């Protein structure tokens, strides 16, 4: 493969820190490289040096003659006086850009709800970010260097971006470097991973799943080093292998040894134990929404929502911006009353929300972390039964990535990710039994996301998650719903089902299309027709009803199990076996649902 750019002996340091020490690496034609590492270890600095935006203290970067490198910065660099059209296509006449299929696809994929003739200064932060990305992707580049490109994109936008980058160049042409904490995106797009840590850049073959697999082996060979990090990586690998085994089929290296590492890894969560503890803390009644409707004037946001939250339920919520996700969360936490219908809450329910704002920290910004932590609870219990573990606030801070030195740091001097983790700690120590996480992955690197997921695995309560991070959503929740066309819709097929529904036009908002801009092509019609089509549609509806009914039975059985005499081992075993049979039937029905959906979509 032809060489595009390379770095030799790169050294970079700032007054208080050496970031890189003698780093040598290269990018060839066809490389799709994901750059991962802890916040502050130098991911963005590395990419800036390779793109020619930052001069190293020593060493050099060489590029092929005439190489065109396109860069997406984290900072907003748009001219606020430009119109959206001019920011994206410049002064090119309409017949030129409108006749370019690639430009039309970029505009349709990123700017369908952005006014084409609007002025940049009038746009929201998320819209400006998408305009910046569209302007870059509309150009011709040999190498793209993208710094957090999925920020401000929803699940649908992230899926579109992944598809665009996979098809942008021929397989052995072009080069991509991307810094992102979106692990699904890394797996979907990247063929290599660079881990930035301890002043070096360590290359791995494959995307995120392959990187984790290789890192487990590396850590196994150096078991005395970073033991905690190894355990988290092993647990995450178990999730990857059990939840999405196809992801690890891409690497060329042997995986037998790595598979042996996870042979004895237990399930991610003790579901029955956590369910039992959740019932003990919450009782049978949590929060029930009965025919709940919310309108703001003539704008109906939610209509006829029927939802019963069970003790220990773990649910992800999907939906485009403006669909009504925040309104639904407000109904759950009690900050909003329905326009009609009712919301019923159990007597012991205590709801806490990790919002996108840094709530709870404003009054303590000048205090060191240890001073604030010293006023909190002296201990907190995680897990259930024999796996229950009592932890102090300091132990929790360590588990969330705080070093002992950082405990003396004033809160205002913490990074965004550190403040985010401290905010979560405050919420957990208040011991709520219903936890709402609204975009919790903001500002967290991949290692901290794994630590957060590990912490939530042992949290006994009802969990509601809104996130555009597909990997995180699928990892910590057991089922997903979507807010679409003012209704709450169960997604037996998870995120994939949501994307299929959106592609077919379900849940579309009345966003303004760009002037003369392209409209996304409709999905291919089903190959079924006549009686065959009607039979498939009828069976699909029947399967959906059966799944919903069985899911309710499983939840009810688990609640009853929590009240069963725990000394009656024979009875417990019989009930658990019955629950297992119900869950197996649900899995079979979900597979049938997927088959029918694919058949109907053609």
Automatic annotation (TrEMBL):
Mention any Pfam family matching this sequence: ABC_tran_CTD
Q: What's in the keyword line of the UniProt record? A: ATP-binding, Coiled coil, Nucleotide-binding
Q: Name one GO molecular function term.
A: ATP hydrolysis activity
Q: Which Gene3D superfamilies does the record cross-reference, listed alphabetically?
A: P-loop containing nucleotide triphosphate hydrolases, Valyl-tRNA synthetase, C-terminal domain
Recorded superkingdom: Bacteria
Q: Which CDD domains match?
A: ABCF_EF-3 (cd03221)
Give start and end of each ABC transporter domain. 5-230, 287-510
Q: Which residues form a coiled coil?
A: 533-599
Record PANTHER family: ABC TRANSPORTER ATP-BINDING SUBUNIT, ABC TRANSPORTER DOMAIN-CONTAINING PROTEIN
What name does this protein carry? ABC transporter ATP-binding protein
Species this chain originates from? Propioniciclava sinopodophylli
């Amino acid at each position: 493969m032809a060489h595009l750019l390379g770095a030799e002996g790169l050294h970079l340091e700032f007054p208080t820190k050496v970031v890189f020490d003698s780093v040598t690496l290269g990018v060839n034609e066809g490389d799709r490289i994901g750059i991962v590492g802890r916040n502050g270890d130098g991911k963005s600095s590395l990419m800036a040096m390779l793109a020619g935006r930052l001069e190293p203290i020593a060493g050099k970067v060489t590029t092929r003659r005439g190489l065109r490198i396109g860069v997406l910065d984290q900072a907003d660099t748009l001219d606020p006086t430009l119109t959206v059209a001019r920011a994206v296509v410049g002064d090119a006449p309409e017949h030129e850009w409108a006749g370019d299929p690639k430009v039309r696809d970029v505009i349709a994929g990123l700017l369908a709800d952005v006014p084409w003739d609007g002025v940049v200064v009038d746009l929201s932060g998320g819209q400006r970010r998408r305009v910046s990305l569209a302007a870059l992707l509309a150009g011709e580049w040999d190498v793209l260097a993208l710094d957090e490109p999925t920020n401000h994109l929803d699940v649908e936008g992230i899926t579109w971006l992944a598809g665009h980058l996979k098809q942008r160049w021929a397989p052995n042409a072009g080069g991509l470097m991307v810094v992102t904490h979106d692990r699904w995106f890394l797996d979907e797009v990247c063929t290599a991973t660079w881990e930035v840590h301890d002043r070096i850049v360590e290359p791995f073959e494959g995307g995120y799943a392959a990187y984790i697999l290789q890192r487990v082996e590396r850590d196994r060979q150096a078991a005395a080093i970073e033991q905690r990090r190894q355990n988290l990586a092993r647990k995450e690998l178990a999730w990857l292998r059990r939840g999405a085994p196809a992801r690890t089929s891409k690497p060329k290296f042997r995986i037998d040894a790595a598979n042996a590492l996870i042979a004895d890894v237990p399930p991610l969560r003790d579901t029955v134990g956590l369910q039992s503890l959740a019932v003990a803390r919450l009782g049978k009644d949590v929060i029930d929404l009965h025919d709940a409707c919310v309108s703001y004037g003539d704008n109906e946001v939610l209509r006829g929502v029927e939802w019963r939250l069970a003790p220990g339920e773990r649910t992800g919520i999907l939906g485009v911006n403006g669909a009504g996700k925040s309104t639904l969360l407000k109904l759950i936490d009690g900050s909003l009353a329905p326009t009609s219908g009712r919301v019923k809450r159990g007597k012991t329910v205590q709801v806490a929300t990790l919002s996108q704002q840094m709530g709870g920290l404003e009054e303590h910004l000048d205090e060191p972390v240890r001073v604030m932590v010293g006023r909190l609870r002296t201990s907190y219990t995680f897990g259930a039964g024999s796996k229950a573990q009592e932890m102090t606030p300091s132990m929790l801070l360590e588990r969330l990535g705080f070093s002992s030195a950082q405990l003396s740091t004033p809160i205002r001097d913490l990074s965004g990710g550190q403040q985010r983790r401290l905010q979560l700690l405050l919420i957990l120590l208040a011991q709520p039994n219903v936890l709402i996480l609204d975009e919790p992955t903001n500002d967290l690197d991949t290692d901290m996301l794994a630590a957060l997921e590990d912490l939530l695995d042992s949290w006994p309560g009802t969990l509601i998650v809104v996130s555009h991070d597909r990997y995180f959503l699928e990892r910590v929740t057991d089922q997903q719903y979507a807010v679409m066309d003012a209704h709450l819709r169960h997604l037996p097929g998870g995120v994939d089902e949501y994307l299929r529904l959106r592609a077919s036009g379900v849940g579309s908002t009345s966003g303004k299309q760009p002037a003369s801009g392209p409209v996304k092509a409709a999905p291919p019609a089903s190959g079924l027709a006549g009686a065959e089509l009607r039979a498939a549609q009828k069976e699909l509806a029947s399967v959906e009803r059966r799944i919903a009914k069985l899911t309710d039975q499983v939840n009810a059985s688990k609640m009853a199990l929590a009240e069963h005499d725990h000394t009656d081992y024979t009875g417990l075993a019989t009930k658990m076996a019955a629950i297992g049979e119900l869950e197996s039937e649900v899995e079979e029905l979900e597979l049938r649902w997927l088959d029918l959906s694919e058949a109907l979509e053609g």
